[in-house]
Amino acid sequence: MEEGSTKEVLDNDALEKRKQKVFAYLKKDKNWIIWGIFVFIAWFGFWIRTRNLSLLKDVTTGLYIPADPDAFAIWRYAKYILENGQLMNIDYMRYYPWGFGNLVDFKFLSYLITYLYKFLHFFNSSITIEYVDILYPAIAFVVGLLFFFLLVKKLFDYRVALLSTLLLTIIPPYLFRTASGIGDKEALGMVFFFMGLYFFYCGWEERNIKKTLLFGVLSGLCTGLMGLVWGGMAFLVSIIGLFSLICFVFLEYRQNQFLSYATWYISFYAFMFIFRDYNINSIIGVYFGIAATLALFVGIFNYIVLKYSLKDGIEKNSKFHIKFLA
């Protein structure tokens, strides 16, 4: 009995040592595990978003068709660009007989789908523009999910990021807007939404001025691209503007952070000025007026306080304690 008990103890010790070695290895090289889980979640999200492909074929032509009425317009524009080399100036199939001339809201997305088709068609000649059009939302979902994961991982940790990524993958409203065949603006707009937030936060936390400027420009570029795709850009501008104001009043606020904010705002507004024919009056226009005005006033207010060292006066005459860091 004693010999058997000794052998059992030795086996348990060996098992425990192996277990400790495995956990030590996993803890040491956990990055590949984290990214492996993310890749699996992204693959799963792409898989469930493409389960309806067989249902999107037109039985009369054998070609794929969009699943959403609005997506038909974007598919038609992409096909027109492919056949004619550029988008029409007026779409006479809308608002007959006058036509629809405000195609700037559809231009970037239509060209993107067209050039995505050309890229994929180069490697596989059997791919059609119709197939790329219905598949684009699922592809955009994977790209957006990557930047969402990076953002949450930077804000919290990898555990929260993986759980949040999984929830975003299966949440019904987002699943619907990024499913195959729903080739509307939201799928691509959310890609630039997550990219804009990620690059802005990178610049916000960065201490190196050159990197702060770089991230600010990247965030502004993503915000501007979102504005070319989707009016939801107002949400991104509002979030960043309110975030900066809250940090200024209640949390720590560095000069580098103001620089990041100013670079973001100037970059995205210059982008809209060039590519969307915005002007000074557009700052309070109807498209995203409240959001852009708020963001502008926050930046001006923060700049004046920092420039003229008004910290002491504000703290004396208010209940809030504002923290400024070099």
What are the SSEs and their pairings?
Layout: H1 2-28, H2 31-49, H3 69-84, H4 104-123, H5 129-155, H6 158-170, H7 172-177, H8 185-205, H9 209-229, H10 233-250, E1 252-254, H11 255-275, H12 289-307, H13 311-316, E2 323-325
Parallel strand pairs: 1-2
Structure write-up:
Helix content is 72%, strand content 2%. By secondary structure, the chain is an all-alpha fold. The protein has two domains: 11-183, no CATH class; 209-326, no CATH class. Strands 1-2 form a two-stranded parallel ribbon. The termini are far apart.
Rough outline: flat
Mean pLDDT: 81
Largest sheet, in brief, is:
2 strands, parallel
Count of structural domains: 2
> In terms of per-residue confidence, which ranges show pLDDT below 50 for 5 or more consecutive residues?
283-288, 319-326
Query: In percent, how helical is the residue content?
Result: over 70%
Number of discrete helical segments: 13
SS-derived structural category: mainly alpha
Please write the string of helix (H) and strand (E) elements. Answer: HHHHHHHHHHEHHHE
- Name the strands of the widest sheet in spatial order: 1-2
User: How large is the share of residues in beta strands?
Assistant: under 5%
* Overall strand count: 2
- N- to C-terminal distance: 72 Å
User: Radius of gyration over alpha carbons?
Assistant: 26 Å
